[in-house]
Amino acid sequence: MGGFAISRRGFAAAAALAALAPRVGRAAASSNRAEGWRVAMERGFALDDGTGLYREYAPGTTADAKYATEWPFSQAHIAYLDLVMAGPASARRYDAGLAKVRAAQQLYWSETSTTGLPGYLSRVVAPLGTGDDLFYDDNEWVGLAEVQHHRFRGDAASLTRAKAVFELIRSAWSSDANLPSPGGVRWTQKADNVDRNTVSNMPGAQLGLRLHQITGERAYLDDAVRFYHWTNAVLQRPDGLYHDHLKLDGTIEKTVWTYNQGVPVGVNVLLWRATGEKRYLEEARRIAAASLGRFTIEQLDRQPPPFNAIYFKNLLLLDSATGGQQHIARMRAYADHMWRNRRDAATGLCRPRKGRAELIDTAAMVQIEAVLGWAPEKWAALY
Q1: DSSP label at 217?
Q2: Which end of the chain, N or C, is surrounded by fewer C-beta atoms within 10 Å?
Q3: In the CATH scheme, what architecture does the domain 25-381 have?
C-alpha cells in the first residue's frame, strides 16, 4: 500500500511537470523574442547622448525632430516595465534599463499647462525641446504605468505621479453645456480641438479605479464611473464595441480600434472588483467576445501594434478575474504572426505596412512578448 501511494504521488508530480513544461517552454520563447525586439529597438532608436531618450523613426532624417514624441516614448518606457515584471531574473536583467527610461520620461513633464496643472507634454520640455501640446490619453498611459510600478515596487513617488496625472484628467472634463452630448474628457488641450474620445475617457476611468484600489478614496471611483457612463452613452455601439470619438459638430468618428475595446474590458473588470456587481464582469465578457468575433489575426495586423498591446493586456486582466486563459492563445498567435511576417530581417525592427519603422511599433512588440512570459497569476496587475 505504501509503495502504491509513493508511486501515485510520483505519477502526480510527473503529470504536473508535464503540464507545466509547455508553459515554461512558451515563456522562454517569449522571453527570447522580447529580448530580440528590445535589442532591435535600442539599436534602431536609442540616442547615445546621455538623456535616455529615443528617436521616433528609423532610419532618421535631418528633417526629423531629435527626440520622439511622448506617446511613442511612453510605450518604450512601458516595454521595460513589462520586462522587469516578468520575473526575478528579468528584473535583474532589465532594472537598469527601466530606471533609465523612467528618468527620461520626466523630460516631458511640465509644471504647468493650459489648465494650470502639470502634465506630460507631447515633446520634451526646455532646455531639450519646446514642450508643445498636451494630450490627455498620453498622460493616462503614463499614469497607469506609474500605478503598475507602484504596485510592483511599493514606491511613493510613482503613486504621487499617478495622482497628479489623474488631477490633470479631472481638469479635462468638458463643462460646456452647449456642446453636443455635454461632458466627457477632452482628447487634447489644443484650443481648436474639442474631440472627446473613448481613449481619453476609458483609460482615465481605469486610472481612477486603480487609484481607488490603492487609496480607498471614493472620489476616484466616482470620477471613474462618470467617465465610464459618458463613454457608454455616447460612443458605445449596441454590440458592445466602441466608436473612436465625438466631434465638435456632433458627428461620431466610427473607426473601431482595438485599444478602444480592450480598455473598457479592463474598466469593467475593475468596476466589478470595486463594487462586487456581477453586471460589470458580464459586460467585460460581452465586449471581449464581440471584439474577438471582429478581429482576426489578419485584421489585428491592420491595427497599430501599440493598440493591440493595450487590447491584449486588458483581455488578460479579464482572464485574471474569470480564472480562464481563453485570450492568451489569440495573443500568442498574433505575436507569432508579427515575428514571422513583420520583423525586418536586416534590422530586427517591426516593419511597417508603409513608410519608415517607428519606435512605438517595436516597443509594442517588446511589451506583447514580455507579457506572454508572465505567469497567469500576475495578469491582475495589467492596466
Answers
A1: -
A2: N
A3: Alpha/alpha barrel (1.50)
Angle between helices 278-294 and 259-275 (to 10 degrees): 160
Measure the N-to-C terminal CA separation of the chain; round to a whole number of Å: 51
Q: CB–CB of 305/313 below 8 Å?
A: no
CA 99 and chain centroid, separation? 19
Assign 246 to helix, strand or coil: strand
Going through 156-258 in order, the beta strands assigned E by DSSP cover 196-197, 245-246, 252-253
Delimit the domains of the chain by residue range: 25-381
3-state SS track over 273-321 = HHHCCHHHHHHHHHHHHHHHHHCCHHHHHCCCHHHHHHHHHHHHHHHHH
Separation CA 379–CA 372 (nearest Å): 10
Handedness of CA 240, 281, 308, 125 (dihedral sign): positive
Residue linked to cell 489575426:
297
Between CA 125 and CA 131 the distance in angstroms is 4
Which tens digits make up the pLDDT trace of 76-103?
999 999 999 999 999 999 999 999 999 9
Cα distances from 339 to residues 42, 135, 359, in angstroms, run 17, 31, 16
| 114-117, Cβ contacts within 8 angstroms, sequence gap of 24 or more | 114/189, 114/191, 115/168, 115/171, 115/172, 115/189, 116/171, 117/164, 117/167, 117/168, 117/171
Taking the whole predicted model, whether its pTM rises above 0.90 is answered as yes
Residue located via cell numbers 486610472: 207
Could you give the maximum distance between any two Cα atoms of the chain, in Å? 82
Cell numbers 522562454 correspond to what residue?
28
Q: 63 Cβ partners below 8 Å, 6+ apart?
A: none
Cell digits for 381?
496587475
Three-state helix/strand/coil letters over 48-110: CCCCCCECCEECCCCCCCCCCCHHHHHHHHHHHHHHHCCCHHHHHHHHHHHHHHHHHHHHHEE
Cα separation, 116 vs 114, whole angstroms? 5
pLDDT digits (tens, 9 = 90+) for 192-219: 899 999 999 999 999 999 999 999 999 9
Kindly report, residue by residue over 52-73, the tens digit of the pLDDT: 999 999 999 999 999 999 999 9
**CA atoms of 373 and 86, how far apart (whole Å):** 6
Q: Residue count of the chain, please give it.
A: 383
